[in-house]
Amino acid sequence: MKRLFWVILLLASAVGAEENSKWTGRSKPLKDATYLIYSGESGDRGPPTNLDRKLAIAIRGQAAKEIFESIGPDVKGVSCSLEEGERMRSKGEVWCSYMPSDGYMCFLGFNLKTGEPHSGGSC
């Protein structure tokens, strides 16, 4: 859990950093995000249990755009839709997409029993 706290704190700080010249060290509010606590796998979720509790976080908007731009380059040959112009980026267990019709979206997650990171989403 301690690791989870530090990862979220670092992510919030990274999301708050726009450009080095404008960086103030202050965190920004994360307005366009959702979370889900569940059991099972990202593509087959169920209610959380005492033995299996995972956290999935989905971030949209400007924060997702900043994360997307920070984890380049685009992943080639991976697609979640048939939309022209879709772009995907991934670094470790953080992955982001851009679709012209829907904008930027990033996913991350943690196993709340072990503190280990996981992708937090699936196509």
Q: What would the average pLDDT be, to the nearest integer?
A: 84
Helix run count: 2
Number of strands: 7
Span between termini: 27 Å
Largest sheet descriptor:
7 strands, antiparallel
Runs in which pLDDT lies below 50 for 5 or more consecutive residues are 4-13
H-E order: HEEEHEEEE
Class by alpha and beta content: alpha+beta
Strand residue percentage: 25-35%
Helix content: 10-25%
Rg is 15 Å
Dominant shape: globular
Taken together, the total number of domains comes to 1
Descriptive account of the structure:
Keywords: Signal. It contains 2 helices and 7 strands, in the order αβββαββββ. It is α+β, with helices and mostly antiparallel strands and about 120 residues long. The chain has one domain. Strands 1, 2, 3, 4, 5, 6 and 7 form a 7-stranded antiparallel sheet that branches. The longest helix has 15 residues. The two termini are about 25 Å apart. About 10% of the residues have low confidence.
Question: Topology, pairings included?
Answer:
Layout lengths: L1 H15 L16 E9 L2 E3 L7 E7 H10 L16 E5 L2 E6 L3 E9 L5 E2 L5
Antiparallel strand pairs: 1-2, 1-3, 3-6, 4-5, 5-6, 6-7
Keywords: Signal
